[in-house]
Design brief:
With about 290 residues, the protein is mostly helical. It is built from two helices and no strands. Helix 1 packs antiparallel against helix 2.
């Protein structure tokens, strides 16, 4: 029993010794691990501290730099404000000039459009002017041609008037002479007849027959004389109508009658003035 107890005691002590050795080993391991971890943590925090110190120093420098920059910016801002105050009046003037220039630009656009329209109208008017010039030249040529034709007609008309006047005067003279000769012949015949009737001793019946025949002859002769007077009046009237038509045409063409070189004479019958109607409207003798 004792031996068993001793053996168990020995085993117990051995196991206790082994447990203590393991415990000491674990403690040593834990201590080493703790030391290592502490060293790592210490190094880590040392690095963090150093980094933080470096960052703090850097931030301090940046703060100093920012303060200096802020001072410079504030100084520049003050300078800019002063510059703005100095440039405010020129800026207002520049704005007014810009507004004026914009107004002028709008007016310029209007003027430009007006100028384009005026150029277009000028082009049209220039073409119209050229057309009018051409028409004017054509009209001048036509006018010159009409003037030549008028002068030619005027010469022909004057020549015809001379010829008609000469012919009508000659015809009037012949008719007047013929009429005078017939009147003289009639007077002579009447005188001779009266002498014959006075010398003859005809009875009243025969005298009545002879007288009636004589009156018939006289009526025939008087009718012929009236026809000749009517023809003379018609010719004189046609001559006068031709003269009036001629003078009217001269006035239409603007030619004074004084430029003819002679004065047209109106014809009369027995010193009597003829009527103003057409030559074809001269009344026949009754």
């Amino acid at each position: 029993m004792r031996m068993l107890r001793d053996e168990l005691e020995l085993r117990r002590k051995t196991e206790i010794h082994e447990i203590e050795e393991r415990k000491n080993g674990q403690i040593n391991t834990l201590m080493k691990n703790h030391e290592k971890a502490f060293s790592d943590i210490k190094n880590y925090y040392n690095d963090i501290t150093l980094n933080n110190l470096a960052l703090i120093n850097s931030l301090k420098e940046q703060v100093e730099e920012m303060k200096k920059k802020e001072e410079r910016m504030e100084k520049q801002m003050n300078e800019i404000q002063l510059e703005n105050k100095r440039l405010k009046e020129p800026l207002e003037k520049a704005r007014e000039e810009v507004a004026e220039l914009q107004r002028q630009l709008a007016n310029y656009e209007k003027d430009k459009a007006s100028l384009a329209s005026a150029k277009a109208r000028l082009k049209v008017m220039d073409q119209e002017f050229k057309d009018l010039q051409w028409e004017h030249e054509v009209l001048e040529q036509r006018f010159e041609k009409m003037e030549n034709e008028r002068d030619e007609l005027y010469r022909k008309f004057v020549k015809a008037i001379h010829e008609v006047q000469q012919k009508s005067n000659f015809k009037n003279l012949l008719l007047e002479k013929k009429l005078g000769a017939l009147a003289d012949t009639l007077e002579k015949k009447e005188a001779q007849l009266n002498e014959v009737l006075s010398a003859s001793n005809l009875d009243p019946t025969a005298l009545t027959v002879v007288t009636r025949k004589l009156e018939d002859v006289l009526d025939s002769k008087n009718s012929a004389i009236k026809d000749l007077q009517y023809e003379l009046a018609r010719v004189c009237k046609a001559h006068n109508d031709l003269l009036r038509t001629y003078e009217s045409k001269l006035q239409t063409f603007g030619v004074p009658t004084e430029e003819l070189g002679f004065k047209p004479l109106e014809s009369t019958v027995g010193g009597q003035q003829l009527g103003q109607g057409s030559a074809g409207l001269v009344a026949a003798p009754t």
